Amino acid sequence: MSEAPLFKSSGALAPEGLPDISQWEFWNTERAGRPAAWRILRDIPGLPFYPERVFADSPFDPGPGYFAVTRHDDVWHASRHPELFCSGKGSNIIDLPQELNEFYGSMINMDDPKHFRLRSIVSKGFTPRHVSAVDEQVRAKAAELVDRMIRDNPSREADLVSTFSGALPLEIICSMMGIPAADTPNIFEWTNTILGVGDPEYGGTYERLMEVSLAIFAYAQALGESRRADPTGDITSALMAADVDGDQLTPQEFGSFFILLVVAGNETTRNAISHGVKALSDNPEQRDRWFGDFDRHARTAVEEIVRWATPVIHFRRTVTADTPLGGQPLRAGDKIVLFYESANRDERVFEHPEQFDISRPLQPAQVGFGAGGPHFCLGANLARREITVAFDEIRRRMPELRAVAEPDFLQSNFINGIKRLPCRW
Ligand code: HEM
Fold first, then answer.
1. Could you tell me the distance, in angstroms and rounded to a whole number, from the CA of residue 151 to the centre of ligand 1?
2. Ligand 1: which residues within 6 Å by Cβ?
3. Local confidence band at 1 (pLDDT 50, 70, 90 cut-offs)
4. Cβ 366 vs Cβ 353: under 8 Å
5. Of all atoms in ligand 1, which is nearest to the CA of residue 272?
6. How much is the pLDDT for 82?
7. pTM for the whole thing?
């Protein structure tokens, strides 16, 4: 078990007698206690207030602290009232200078109308129609990866993440963005570092994060320039040529967009597939039911996998005007953190939330892709397609696939990541 990296913390103390979700241990070494901790926080009146922590080597100081939003209704309300709970001051817990906010987050750290302008440019690439157009590609890529897995592992054992669940979303988003196949290993490493920043395996320091961010930004600029000169029909070419009300993306806007799309397209779906394989291994009766009549259950099973996995644990909002939330009076400027992981286990909304059930009704909706509102996941249709096809290929080619050891989890309070999952078929 690895040691906690060094942090500096804001002065505020965690609420007495409640689980301390600001502690590194809560997210990493004590992970099994999370469901019970979220239940305690959902059941107290109002919203608990927590201190912030940043890496010891970060040039930024921790902010004043944040209110934790853990109930489904409250996550739903805040997501759908961006006029009261804005994203423009950042969507991660710590405050960054505004330029860095936009550099890292692009439109996820913006409010309308700026957010709307950027989202309109790229959303054409992610409509259900467009996603069906890449369907064949997803199917071919999944089949190729399964072939390779079977061919390269005569012992019928392999790590699922490096052979399949990590490779599929990576190769699809790279291909949609027009990134040459030879560069995909770099993209994999870069996005791992950006989202795995708290995990010592991926660097774990602020300095390393900056190094990789600059490398990916420079890569994006070069690719963008070559597509501007010679468009090839991919999303990068579309972004470079985009014309919304006479505007084009600035090089800075394009670079940030590029980072958002490759990170979001890569580090989320991968974990949904890995958690899904683990859940089906732990619940073989669910696997038999789904694989016995795949198409009938696919829609609900995929939604249940995303609820179960909740690959993105939280996003932050900032309060714009005094308002209550969940019985808690809030003041303009307060930070709130929407914990999708807790909302997706809220017993007020889901019957037996601790059970993995591939036939769970679609309503009330799980919030793994967000809870509606302007920032709802742009890639949700693509991710659903990738997850469906991934499990369909597993069903057809290796229906006996199951996890044979506990996952090696990413150390993070933001991404519910699985770094390795040993499997047998
Ligand atoms: C299972 C897979 C995925 C999960 C769980 C997931 C989750 C999320 C969440 C929670 C948000 C924020 C929602 C909010 O603030 O209301 C988000 C936003 C976003 N996601 Fe995903 N995502 C997934 C896959 C993808 C894929 C494949 C892409 C493709 C590039 C993508 C692109 C984006 C973008 C661009 C945004 C920002 C949207 C905006 O600010 O308007 N995501 N996602």
1. 34
2. 79, 107-108, 119, 173, 260-261, 264-265, 268-269, 272, 306, 311-312, 315, 340, 368-370, 373, 375-379, 382-383
3. very low
4. no
5. 1
6. 98
7. 0.96
